[in-house]
Amino acid sequence: MNITIIGTGYVGLPSGCGFAELGHNVICVDNDITKITKLSQGIVTLYEDGLEELLKKNLASGKLKFSSDLPSAVGAADIVILAVGTPPDPTNGQADLKYIHAAVKELAPALKDYTVVATKSTVPVGTGDEIENIIKKYNPTAMFDVISLPEFLREGYAVYDFFNPDRIIVGTNSERAKELVESLYKNLPKKTEILFVNRYSSETIKYASNAFLAMKIHYINEIANFCEKTGANVLEVAKGMGLDSRIGNRFLNPGPGFGGSCFPKDTKALSYMAHQKGLNLSLVDATIKGNAERKEEMAKRIYDKVKKISEDTQVKVKLSILGLAFKEGTDDCRESPAVEILQNLLNIMTQEDKETIEICAYDPKAMPIAKTILKDNITYKDSIEECLRGAHIATILTEWKCFGDTDFNAYKDTLKAVLDFRNLSKKKRLTDFEAKIIVGL
Ligand code: NAD
User: Fold this and answer.
1) Is 262 labeled as catalytic in the residue annotation?
2) Which of the four pLDDT bands, split at 50, 70 and 90, describes residue 105?
3) Distance from residue 11's CA to the centre of ligand 1 (Å)
């Protein structure tokens, strides 16, 4: 089957490499020419475990190609998959569809024989209708079906998730499109349920799923606050809750709040859509508000600890931040809690604080991207060791395994506190420090 994917970001690139590996002929299109040049040479433009090997292998076999010429890439496609961004409008949180609209206007005139246009981007309910209307306007004789094909991959596990999806959701009533989707996925290594629903339902499933997971994280963070007041141990509480198969143990890790390119924007977009229909999704709204407050609260905790150590030691305090990506396994910093907490912290700090506190950070993959956001307001170190050498406080903000494996005792000449916002550290490694495991205990 000939597949054209529009957008080679965190969704489009792993999907393109994956479909090529399943035996399809794939052309990945992007209007970022630098990306296309690099990808054509086998250079990955984002970090995902296993992606580089998959890219090189399928480029070499000729199954995977890259292009910035969208119309030429669309003509021979059986299916065109939209994987462009749908970022939040900063004024009201609604999903901004400008990239979708631009891509559809460009692809419409290029459609030749019957083609399925599938939306993998997360789009508001009813966007399938809009795409259909745009195509009809720019190519009245085109034979096509627009389907919703939401993506559920987890960043950090994108390659694994491509080949091992929990489920495939398809929004369409067209029998012809259903058959095509079945052959698209027929070579997956394990049989996976394809749930066919109507297009509005499919578009809603994506938002309802992400909002639910975001709510689950926010809920355990609230329970963590409760545990801190009662003497309960939130890790034990989460474990006990998770043993109930109706609840499940995933997304019950207390932490600094959720972030990333999906949960924050999708909860806001869902809330916006509901308000447009005169509805109030109170749980979703409380989750959005509570998550923003959590990141402020975490910054305040760091600030208070830094100030206390500053007063106690009367020296310039070195604060080491471990982790900048929004989660482990990725270089993505979009709405990263680590980055937002640092921004909040920098906002709380007075000019005098800035002269008496040095903030440095290390992340295994995300530093180049984080630097573009945080600029030179902090310093960047090339290793955990360099970041922790001479530090007075270490703060873990991203759940990279290497941070949990760190022996903080090696730095105890200067290190006074380890603030582990991800509850990663082995307790025995932290016996000498105050504020050992910080969240919920
Ligand atoms: P991204 O920003 O990483 O990638 C989007 C790409 O599309 C960019 O490379 C951009 O240059 C390209 N692009 C934009 N307009 C174009 C056009 N007209 N022609 C060609 N290329 C164009 O975004 P992403 O993280 O991959 O997300 C894409 C969509 O998938 C979003 O709607 C997102 O909500 C959804 N999604 C993302 C994830 C995730 O984990 N990142 C998971 C599920 C769903």
Assistant:
1) yes
2) very high
3) 6
